[in-house]
Amino acid sequence: MNTQLLIDTANKLVADDKGLLAMDESNPTCNKRFAKLNIPQTVEARRAYRELIVTTPGLGECISGVILYDETIRQQKKDGTPFLKVLTDAGIIPGIKVDAGAKDLAAHPGEKITEGLDGLRDRLAEYFQMGALFAKWRAVIAIGVGIPSRSCIEANAHALARYAALCQEAGLVPVVEPEVLMDGDHTLEQCRAATEEVLRTVFNQLNSQRVMLEGMILKPNMVLPGLTCSTQESVDEVADTTMKSLWRTVPAAVPAIAFLSGGQSAELASARLNTMNHRFKTQLPWALAFSFARAIQQPALEIWRGEEANVTPAQQALLHRARCNRAARRGEYTVAMEKT
């Protein structure tokens, strides 16, 4: 294991107030989003959309790393230039999603387990040879009547830890993503309790699997009420509750926490990240960054709609969201930025 490479890569991924762009949607997920906008669900349409993202002028000013999907990491621009070269030429570190998706957890209705450990060592070696320097694995934890169960939390935490250890062995920084889902009518307090239990279990497992904390990044959810909860707390209340949960559960050795957006609107995700950095940045042992997908991509996708003529305005929208989130890392984001 190249300890120094892992530490250096982890620090580069959150240096200079930049963050991560997740464009690692599986083909079925990408097709589903295309279908809503009447975009053809084809290999070429997906390639064209991803070319739009990776060739956005100035993207490297705000984005330090991009999480790719297996199809994407092998794709090229229309002129034949590999996406990996486009990214590295822009100073952006390539990463790769390596899990095989969340499947039903046997004997646990309503709960999921993420699969993909079989053959992972060989896949990681291939991706490293291709040029990827970090990877991502997502576990999903639902809140509902009687859930999450201890067995679901423990099974997913164990898989995350085994994945992380294999990544470090291969020279890739693991992005560890235990997502407590926003879906449902649960309260902020219920999300807090579940998030803290999940994070404690994850770090217990990471320690058991001898994962070097200095060479990883945590990608958690913000602590939020469910989307259909009748009480939706303020940005300040979300920031307070999220920070308390992280202080209680995340070791100081972890270099960075890069939040997922998880279905939040682009503006709310930026505002909440901004408030945490504005109020608490000087008190934190770790960097507070972003690893957003829809909260950066969605406005651009809605402008593009599969039309070549819309590429430039779509890229401008993508860069705008990236800039908003870089400002949020500095605690300098304002609603007025949305009008520029």
Properties at a glance:
alpha/beta; TIM Barrel; eight-stranded parallel sheet; 14% strand
| Binned strand content | 5-15%
Span from first to last CA? 46 Å
Structural category: alpha/beta
In total, the number of domains comes to: 1
Helix/strand order, N-terminal first: HEHHEHHEEEHEHEHEHEHEHH
User: How many distinct helices?
Assistant: 12
How are the strands of the biggest sheet laid out side by side? 8-7-6-3-2-1-10-9
Give the name of the CATH superfamily.
Answer: Aldolase class I
CATH class: Alpha Beta
C-alpha Rg (nearest Å) = 19 Å
The geometry reads as globular
What does this molecule look like?
With 340 residues, the protein is of the alpha/beta class. The chain has a single domain (3-331), classed as TIM Barrel (Alpha-Beta Barrel). It contains twelve helices and ten strands. The strands form two sheets. Strands 8-7-6-3-2-1-10-9 form an eight-stranded parallel β-sheet. Strands 4-5 form a two-stranded antiparallel ribbon. α10 (266-280) runs parallel beside α12 (311-330) and α11 (294-304) packs antiparallel against α12. The protein is globular and about 50 Å long. The model has no long low-confidence stretch (mean pLDDT 97).
